[in-house]
Amino acid sequence: MSQPAPLHVVTGALGYTGRSLTEQLLARGVRVRTLTNSPDRPNSFGDRIEVHLLAFDDPGRLEQSLRGAAVLYNTYWVRFNHRRFTFASAVRHTMRLFDAARAAGVERVVHVSILHASEADDLAYYRGKHQLEEALKSTGLSHAIVRPGVLFGRFDVLINNIAWVLRRFPVFGVFGDGSYTLRPLHVDDMAALMIDHAHRAGNTEADAVGPERFTYRELVAAIRDILELRRRIVPVPPLVGWVIGRCIGPLVRDVVITREEIAGLMRSLLDSNEPAGRPDAVDGLGSRERRRPGMPLRERSRPPSPACRVV
Ligand SMILES: NC(=O)c1ccc[n+]([C@@H]2O[C@H](COP(=O)([O-])OP(=O)(O)OC[C@H]3O[C@@H](n4cnc5c(N)ncnc54)[C@H](OP(=O)(O)O)[C@@H]3O)[C@@H](O)[C@H]2O)c1
Question: Is the dihedral angle over the CA atoms 179, 193, 254, 169 positive or is it negative?
Fold first, then answer.
């Protein structure tokens, strides 16, 4: 008799990383349940996934939604403080999620953190991520912590916003001298890395970085070249860059970049010396298939950004 498909729970399957992850899990024959804050959001997966409310204020319901899960993948987080949500509330909520996972007997938790989470407690984003890593380690749950710096592909924020500005303005301002470095990882490679870590034994940690290292200035120049544009790249004081980003925000209907994100970028916190994060991909039932190393940004972005949300 065939085994029933394992159940994997994904917070935010209709979000950015969660969507890519869910596609890969479904392709591997895994049963996917998402826990979401936005159950009425358009669901391109239809009835291929189960949708449950991320019921942070109802521990019993949260636990029930996690019962029977072999793996919980947690992508839930907030990008900035707002009158309706804060880093502090996201930390509290995530701790409740970990408690519910333990109570429900979830076999493994794959938690998405951020590169260098423990090295920038002066920034609230990083401090919250650091607290959550420590909290997860103290739960006794079998876990993996996966730490991206910046993800690209499809509807990413940073690369799309750089492309948007390059398309519309004759000059692009980089924060400061633009010499700080970063290693973007494609979102599909991130998803594959998470699945890989779901199937590893013991508690694991991984920096989720791509095969290429860019200075920020080089990254902007690479996107400009992919788009076949002629634009000057000039240094601007970080505060001025942030104010310009604030002005562009309403046009792209997004928060383009926050001051904490600029600080992290300029401290090269989006860089790491770890090997590129392209794992041996693992199918839902545990067999291994060798995959090639992480895809470079230039290759993944050609032809010029057809997937750009803002054109
Ligand atoms: N994207 C990157 O370049 C990047 C870089 C470094 C680290 N990370 C980390 O990777 C993880 C996933 O990032 P992502 O870009 O894929 O995030 P995302 O899709 O924008 O958000 C992940 C989930 O968090 C929930 N969420 C986001 N903002 C929320 C808010 N204001 N209130 C309530 N819920 C909210 C959403 O849940 P619902 O869909 O259920 O509403 C969403 O699905 C996060 O932990 C992030 O810190 C991402």
Answer: positive
